[in-house]
Structure prediction request, 645 residues.
Amino acid sequence: MKKRLKAILLLICLFFEVSLSVFSQNKTIEDLKVAMTLKICQYVHWPIDTNKRFTITLLSDNENLKNKFISISNNFNLNNKHIVIKTIKIPDSIPNTQVLFVEEAQSGSNPVILNKITKRNILLFTENYKISKDIMFNLLPKPYKGSITFELNRTNLIFEGFEIDNEIIELRGSEIDIREMYRQTKLRLEKEENKVGAMQYKIDSQKTNIEKQNNNILKLNTFIEKLNSVIDSQTYDISNKESVLKSLKEITTKQENNIHKNLSVIKKQENLLTSVNSSLLNQNEKISKQKTELETLNKTISEKQKDISRKETVLAAKEVLINFKTNLIYLLAALMALVFTVVFLIFKAYRTNRAAQKILSKQKNELEVTLAKLTQAQAQLVQSEKMASLGILTSGIAHEINNPVNFINSGIQGLQKINTNILKVLQKYREKYGDLPSNKEIEELETALQLPFLLESSPKLISNIQTGVDRTVSIINSLRAFARSDEEEKKLINIHDNIDLALTILYNQYKYKIEIIRNYGEIPQVTCYPGKMNQVFMNILTNAIQAIPDKGTITITTTFSNGLVLISIKDSGTGIPEKIKNKIFDPFFTTKEVGKGTGMGLSIVFSIIEEHNGSVDVFSELGKGSEFFIKLPAENKVTTNQQPL
Prediction:
């Protein structure tokens, strides 16, 4: 008994020493696992990563592992993001995360996890997982060496869209080859089948041992029953012979001692029976566990067999596909011959119809030219009608405004004379009676009315009113001249007057921001249609004003050379891009927004100048401005192919 107690104590001490050593090594291994996981993440590039945080989810119940990840991740930088550690206990619902770490205790659910994270940009880490086809990164701790390595399945990583730096192999990792993985799987299946056979043999031998132990237990039970019957009979005899045995106390005492010894033997046998029963229960539990493991191995074998049959089916399908492609190549060769024949016939028909297409193209060009001429004539007619209506309206407005302006002009002249006379009389009074004692009431009145200010400002006020009236009269005269100029006969005009008339009408558009520089030379009068010439200068000056966004200048220069009047209108605006310079005189071409331009302004200018046997050219540099250069003959005649609009 003492030897047994010593053996038990030695076993307990040995168990505690091994547990302490394993625990200390586990602490080091856990640190290595966490560090290796974070280090691998630095060499992996995610395909789509719009999250502001880098999340690592642990499928584990180990709170110490989570704390290790939190403490060690503070020393790592992953994509310049804050690292967040989360845990889940079951793989039913996997949240959105960048990394999923599956602890070795949860590795049984790895195939289900791999299906759930497919195409979700989640990097999977496993631990000591034996099936290489279901991994991305598999950590391989070596507790007794105090180190850790890993293996990776590049096929699964590429399928999920991850990119891996080649330097990752320097971390003592290994890459799984597909052929090697298939060979190892086959060898593992054979080993598992051998294990199943060995385990079946062990189960059979254990069943035989159990039957033997059951027989021993039955024998012990029979022996115990016999002992119980003997004890009952002895107890009965003792009770019947108590009176007889009083004299024989010594003999009875000896017998009682024998009985006590028998009872102790019976108790020992009962204890032995209890221990045998407990060992039987333990063996039954082991047998049930081994049965469960056998079932799981059978399932794994069946799955592998299904996988092998599936791959054989794929190979057969590929052979069928190769045969189909071979037949398809022959069919394509026949089709190519047929297509060559059809192309030859089409080319022959094309050469036959080419002459007819040339005739149709010529007729189409003639129709397009005719349509362009009709469109331009229509636009000129519409513009002419608009200008005629505008002239009538302008003439009526100018006439109506002219009458009250004349009244104001006449009244302001009279008011100026009256004011001058009053000031003269007041000055005489001051000169003659300035030495007399002043009247207090008059002084208060002068102070209240601010008489010195009135004497100084009233002439200036009347002068400003006169200036406004003069400007209004000038604008009205310009409007009336513009309205009267739409005449159907050519007249001799002074080009300078027409330019000034257009500038007066457009004054409100360029005042305060554009400086007008007039370089007028000595030029003869020009025979032309006054209204149309006004329209030319109005359109060109309007474009020049609109081309200057802020402040700038417009320079107008006129000269006479070789019987031609030369007019240059140059602005300091944005300029015209080179690619559209040739289109600005086309009808309906405009660079303005919808509703702000019709695209007819410069087209009408070109038509009017051409009608007067002149020419108009444009010179422009982007960012520096544009210059319109007009040439008009001093003695001008109307062209025979056009009539005034």
In short: The first strand starts at residue 44 and ends at 45. The longest helix spans residues 249-433.
